[in-house]
Amino acid sequence: MATVFLPMPIRRRIGGEPSLVVEGATLRQIINNLEEIIPGIREELIDPELDDRVIRTISAIIDGEAADMGLRTTVGENSEVHFIPAIAGGAPIPLASQDGNRSKNRNEER
Amino acid sequence: MTTTEKPQEFKVVGTRPIRHDGIDKVLGRAVYGSDVRLAGMIYGAVLRSPYAHAKITKIDTSKAEAMPGVFAVMSGKDMPLVASGALDLGETVDDTAFTSDRVMAHDKVVFKGHPVAAVAAIDQNTGLEALKLIEVEYEVLKPVISLEDAMAPGAVVIHEGLIGDDLGEKVNNTNIAVHNRSEFGDPEAAFAKSATVLERTFIISRAHQGYIEPHASTAFWAPDGKITVWTTTQAPFGVRKTVSALLEQPLSDIKVIPTEIGGGFGGKIPVYLEPVAAVLSKKAGRPVKITMDRRAVFEASGPGPGGTIKVKMGVDDKGKITAATADIRYGAGAYPGASINPATAGIFACYEVPNVRIDSYDVVINMSKTAAYRAPGTPQATFASETLVGELCEIIGMSPMDFHLLNVSREGTRRPDGPVFPRIGNEACLEAIQGSEHFKSTLEPSTESKLRGRGMASGYWNGIGNKSSVTINVNEDGLVSLIEGNPDIGGTRTTIAMQAAEILGLPAEDVHPAVGDTDSIGYSDLTAGSRTTYATGTAAIEAAKMVIDEMKKRVAMIWETEYGNIEHVDGLFVSKVAPDHKFTFKEAAGKLGQTGGPVAMTGTVNVRGSGGGSFGTHLVDVEVDRDTGKVEILRYTAAQDAGKAVHPSYVEGQFQGGAVQGIGWALNEEYYTSDDGVMVNSTFLDYRMPTSLDVPMIETIIVEVANTNHPFGVRGIGETSIVPPAPAVANALANAIGVRLYQTPMNPGRILEALATKKTGK
Questions:
Q1: Which overall architecture, per CATH, does domain A2-109 show?
Q2: How far is CA A68 from the centre of its chain?
Q3: pLDDT tens digits, B584-620
Q4: Helices (runs of H) and strands (runs of E) counted in chain B
Q5: Is A96 near chain B, with CB under 8 Å?
Q6: Residue B165: which of A13, A66, A94 has the nearest Cβ?
Q7: What is the homologous superfamily of the domain B36-142+216-284 according to CATH?
Q8: B709 interface with A at CB cutoff 8 Å
Q9: Are B308 and B151 in contact (CB under 8 A)?
């Protein structure tokens, strides 16, 4: 079974445990099985738009390298899976930038 | 050159052919961003905010619109107010709404130089005059410039809508966009058991990439809705995506034609002018070109972030590292996105550290948004960690080389942010420096007026793989044209062509590479992340293999035999069953017409990671003038792991270029900013970057520890070389003057101050 290292916010939520041993032959199976242990984590990790990759602000790293096939990337029996903030330049953007009700065009807003 | 294992045999890779674009560049024929000329083209000019932080209460453009020679005027109201969302640019992720606001302010300016309006006019001077007629009223707000002010309780909040992420907790009314933590082991317990523990705080200034060519973009928004953009960029497909998102136009209606690029270093990944030129073009009905002046480049484009880094390291009585912690705080500029995550990955990457905790903060301040700058985020963090190591070695009485070798990270070591390293060349770089003539040489002793010292430091950059496309067309004369989608910023046309030539069995000169536009080549991620020779080269190898395979089928048809009877050996197509049947590539290429038409193949890849990245170790000798504080670099040697150097001259050039940029960051460069957020040294006269007259020839040692992720063992090497210089220079200065400096730039003023402090003991 693979060892999954969780992002710090999720780690804190489950009492500080740095890693979990999870079954799964693909990244999708790993996340689905994580969902059984940590309800809601699937929604936090999977890009809802495409449903074939993790969210853009997180990098899924399997055995030291990026998951190039998205959720289809294979995971080995003794693999390490890390979810870490996306590398380089791009910080997570957790916000609706203004007040969440941007109109289509400023002219229409006025 | 140091090689650690029996290399593959190559005919083209590892040689030094003349670059394919050399003649055009030497003769001035190459077309850069501002060289673009189109029929009917007019010129754009951008009105920028004089304030670092202010609300826009009124913009009246009527007088400018009425001015003769003016074709169009725009402001934020002419751009869609797009919703927030992740804008994935390959290496970096930005927010769509913030990017839109950054390109053209909508109702608030958040940095000096923030665009508030733009005009398109018959010529540049008319445009600049028209800007003076635009009336803008501001309600000036208190600027937040320092990290301390931005992070203080009750700080003026720059973005009221920003919801901070503090280790997963949402925070309102904050300038701290993100607080991340990476942790394993128990650092506190390990510190308690350590023989020696050292903690220091470092300050590093924001620094600009200093590319010679300013940003320049031309756009034409045709009546049928199609938008064509000519621009100097590292990321043509990123520009297409950004323009599409910001202007809410279909992606495939936008064609981006990358021009030659006069330096980027990460700074030409973001979009600045393209959407503005497009909106002006739509209004004017003509192509519009906008070129930044140098002040705008400094004030309004993205340098690398400055910040404060607190580092703590413990060692046992033998010098073995027991634990390390760091607190990294970077000023992102006016929008979130400082490079805190690679800083976390890199800060202790050169060492095996059993207990680690790294906190990192992405903090918004009222200066232009920072961008990637060569190994983004990592030179700053490594300045702190490697300078601390230098001082720690002094305290415990151990040579820095022995300390590095004792604690070196290698295959199987856990990186500070978690993943385990595959095969890497860290140790080989140290050994290369240890074996160098420079290392073995004796530094001339100091005199009364000249203080001399030697220092070393190591550095790491991971790099990325990602997506690339390469198309190879076989011409009937036996030469091939190669189209790739990555702008060439370091000779990558040639290094990509060489990898294809290696497979095709052709000399590099017979492969003619060109950088295609976004309509003529498949999607390719940006030229950044030390990925182009590595990842796009892999796509070229794939395309070349497909060409050879198809050529074998065609040759089989010509010789009326089975495909399986054809081999491609040493550049020749030969028949296993008829030994006298032989074709050179050129002979076979000339006969393709009657075998099913031309051969053209496209290789596409999504390369998984970087294969462990590239490590480097630098050694430097400095001389300090005791009276003036001026520092002279006496000798400098850079060793770095290239995996396999495709074109050794270009690899050496990358080592040298990164070293010189790092020396500049160490000794001279800073944004000298007034309290109200105005950069007062926004020219190359006052923003002092080193030139060829300021540094000696940088000696280079190419280390080759093959990358198992690449068919030829190639590693991305463009960025690592900027990581070690600042701490190497800091350690050399400490060795020379007997006092430690903890802040860049380590300029004459700070050095004289340190010498005076040493003398008085205060």
A1: Roll (3.10)
A2: 14
A3: 999 999 999 889 999 999 999 999 889 999 999 999 9
A4: 20, 31
A5: yes
A6: A94
A7: Aldehyde oxidase/xanthine dehydrogenase, a/b hammerhead (3.90.1170.50)
A8: yes
A9: no
